[in-house]
Structure formats: C-alpha cells, structure tokens
Specification:
The complex is a heterodimer of chains A (about 110) and B (about 110). Chain A is mostly beta strands and about 110 residues long. Chain A is built from no helices and eleven strands. Classes of the chains: A mainly beta (about 110), B mainly beta (about 110). At the A-B interface, strand 4, strand 5, strand 9 and strand 10 of A face strand 3 and strand 4 of B.
Chain lengths: ~110, ~110
C-alpha cells in the first residue's frame, strides 16, 4: 500500500518548457488535490477534484491545468513554465467520508 | 471557509508541554477544526481533529472552548523531533471538498 505517489521527485525546466506532474493514489479516495509550497510559506491550493471527471480551481490556478484521468490518477500540467512556478508541488487525496488528507512526498520543480 | 490566525513561530525546550493556539472567529456551525504537522521536505500529515470540547490521541490533545472561536493544540513533553510546522484548518470537511491551509506555526524545539 504505497499511499500517494508523485513523479518525478525533482525536475529542472527552462522557461517556456512544458511538463506534467503525475500523482497516483491506491486508497480508493474520491478527492484529490494539488498544492504548491514556496520556501518558508504555507501550502496553496492549485486545483482539486472531488470525483473522477470533475475538477475545480483552488487559490492559485493560473498557469496550470489538471486532468483527473481516473479515480487513481490526477495530473498537473504546466504548459509554459515560468520562474515564478519554481516551487515544491504536493499531491494529496482524501476519502469523502473522512477528513484526513494523505500527502505525497512532493515534486521539487525549478524553472530557470 | 473560516479564516484562521496562528502565531508565526514558537520556540520551546525538550520535555516541555507546547500549546499552539489558533483563532477562528467566524467558524460556522458545521465546521470542524483540523491540525496537520509538516516536517521539512515532507508533505503534511494529519494530527488531530475536533468539533467541540476536548479530543486526545496518541500524539496530541485538542482543546476547543464552548464558543469554538479558538482552539489549542497541545503537544505533551516535546522532543527535538517535534520541530515542524503546524497548521490549523477550519472547514466543513464532510460537505466541502476544498482544503485550504494557512501559513502555519513554525515550532522549533531546543535541546
């Protein structure tokens, strides 16, 4: 039982490049989340998905797109990376009937 | 979603009891209070949740007064490994899928 798995763990992009951050959970959770965390700051919600086929904007959605591919997977795409998107990205999942969210280990992204 | 206010940082010593207070003046009737802990370079992990009065588990206690406008996370006899950021969240987690984190409290335990 791996929990929430994020890939890759580290990535360096050049400005303007695109990439997709992958997240998968094996806990059969309905809700999934993407956050970013800048150095010394709290987590900010980018997008979330309450169920397969639905996605909603969070606090800071600009510059990102998401896909809830199936119940297990929720990907985050940067179409044209900018230095301001340098951050640590966390994926999380939660069962609708439970309040506890489970987080992945994060993806450290640097845009140069 | 209710706005929360916590101290930015706190220092304490090993073996002490640490209390972190969170203010949430506009908490709604259906809102729960949830605390998460985040170690450096890791994702947050759930510590405790409560609605009113007192909740205790193997990690911490959560004290909520009758008016529910604040709550206090209590960590008994802290050790160096309790150095982390602690987040207080308030929301109707059974009806609202959105989970919003504030800035948290950076707790530094000294030897």
């Amino acid at each position: 039982n791996a929990g929430v798995t994020q890939t890759p763990k580290f990535q360096v992009l050049k400005t303007g490049q695109s990439m997709t951050l992958q997240c998968a959970q094996d806990m059969n959770h309905n809700s999934m989340y993407w956050y970013r965390q800048d150095p010394g700051m709290g987590l900010r919600l980018i997008y979330y998905s309450a169920s397969e086929g639905t996605t909603d904007k969070g606090e800071v959605p600009n510059g990102y797109n998401v896909s809830r591919l199936n119940k297990r997977e929720f990907s985050l795409r940067l179409e044209s990376a900018a230095p301001s998107q340098t951050s640590v990205y966390f994926c999380a999942s939660r069962d609708r009937e439970d309040t506890e969210a489970f987080f992945g280990q994060g993806t450290r992204l640097t845009v140069v | 979603l209710a706005k929360t206010t916590q101290p930015i940082s706190m220092d304490s010593y090993e073996g002490q009891e640490v209390n972190i207070t969170c203010s949430h003046n506009n908490i709604a009737t259906n809102d729960y209070i949830t605390w998460y802990q985040q170690f450096p370079s890791q994702g947050p992990r759930f510590i405790i949740q409560g609605y009113k009065t007192k909740v205790t588990n193997e990690v911490a206690s959560l004290f909520i007064p009758a008016d529910r406008k604040s709550s206090t996370l209590s960590l008994p006899r802290v050790s160096l490994s309790d150095t982390a950021v602690y987040y207080c969240l308030v929301g109707d987690t059974y009806r609202d899928d959105k989970i919003i984190f504030g800035k948290g409290t950076r707790l530094h335990i000294l030897p």
